[in-house]
Design brief:
By secondary structure, the chain is an alpha+beta fold. It folds into 2 domains: about 10-125, Helix Hairpins, CATH 1.10.287; about 130-280, Histidine kinase-like ATPase, C-terminal domain (Heat Shock Protein 90, 2-Layer Sandwich). Helix content is about 55%, strand content about 15%. It has helices at about 10-85, 95-125, 135-145, 175-190, 235-240, 250-260; strands spanning about 130-135, 155-160, 170, 195-200, 205-215, 260-265, 275-280. The strands form 2 sheets. It has a 5-stranded mixed sheet, covered by helices on one side. The protein has a two-stranded antiparallel ribbon with strand order 1-3. α1 runs antiparallel to α2 (about 95-125) and α4 packs antiparallel against α6 (about 250-260). The protein is elongated. It starts with 8 loop residues before the first helix and ends in a 9-residue tail after the last strand. Mean pLDDT is about 85; it is low at about 240.
């Protein structure tokens, strides 16, 4: 009975040499790959540093320009107020129209500057969150009083639903109020007639959703995905007549995230829009006093 013959020493040596050669080639390829990965990481780090520097410079520029703009804007608003109060004498009907036009444009300019400054603070991480206990009724009452003087269109009504079974909230009511003010202002701007309705409801045991629903012009689906981006605006005939920076909704999104929440949009052209913000009833990581 014969068995398989063992490989010759020469064959074993050749196979071992071949294996060693393949291992060396593989090692060389791995080293080359590692060098490429290291170089790629270095390039990514450099690009990240450049991006951070560019973002910081943009934020500093926006903050500086916003502060510089405030003085002349406030002067314009003060002068127009004095003129409309007839402090220096009566105005003709045409002069009243012209001064009122200047006053309205100065107010729009001031709103743009405030949005730019707030956005610069958010991007620079200089926004402080100051949580405190407060009642929903008080927040809605303050918002109602704030918007009462600007409800100049009799064809549009602003409705605040009475909060039902909403507990006390522990969060930054100033930031939440800012978000809702942006939503309400936007809704009033793009609702020629009908109503803007503000409401709140619990989402489970520890989250609450605030909604601002309007019966306005609505937003086409193709704009939904970037409506909360910086400087984003919807192209429409009404939008052309109403100027703005497109920063209000972007700022609202940033502020909602700082409060541990998120924003959402539901809208159809011709059927109005509903902007919502959902936040925790108690700010995460904060210790209620």
């Amino acid at each position: 009975m014969t068995g398989d013959s063992a490989p010759a020493p020469d064959e074993l040596a050749a196979a071992l040499a071949q294996a060693r050669g393949e291992a060396q080639m593989l090692r060389a390829e791995l080293e080359e790959t590692n060098r490429g990965v290291v170089a790629l990481y270095a390039e990514l780090d450099a690009q990240a540093d450049q991006l951070r520097e560019a973002t910081e410079l943009k934020s500093r520029f926006l903050a500086y320009m916003s502060h510089e703009f405030r003085t002349p804007i406030n002067s314009m608003r003060s002068i127009t107020r004095l003129l409309l109060d007839r402090v220096d004498g009566p105005l003709t009907e045409e002069q009243v129209k012209q001064v009122t036009f200047i006053q309205q444009n100065a107010a729009e300019f001031a709103e743009m500057v405030d949005d730019l400054l707030d956005l610069a603070k958010v991007e620079a991480g200089r926004v402080e969150i100051s949580p405190a206990w407060f009642e929903m009724v008080d927040l809605f009452s303050a918002l109602r009083g704030m918007f009462k003087p600007v409800l100049t269109n009799p064809a549009v009504s602003l409705v605040f639903e009475e909060p039902q079974d909403i507990p006390k909230l522990y969060t930054d009511d100033g930031k939440l109020s800012h978000i809702l003010r942006n939503f309400i202002s936007n809704a009033l701007k793009f609702t020629p007639k009908g109503e803007v309705r503000v409401s709140a409801r619990l989402e489970g045991p520890d989250r609450v959703t605030f909604s601002v629903a309007d019966s306005g012009i609505g937003i086409p689906p193709e704009f939904h995905h970037h409506i909360f981006q910086d400087f984003s605006q919807v192209h429409s005939q009404l939008q052309k007549r109403l100027r703005g920076t497109g920063l209000g909704l972007s700022l609202s999104k940033h502020l909602a995230e700082l409060l541990g929440g998120s924003v959402r949009l539901e809208s159809e052209p011709g059927k109005g829009s509903t902007f919502s913000v959902t936040i925790p009833t108690q700010l995460e990581g904060a210790k209620p006093e």
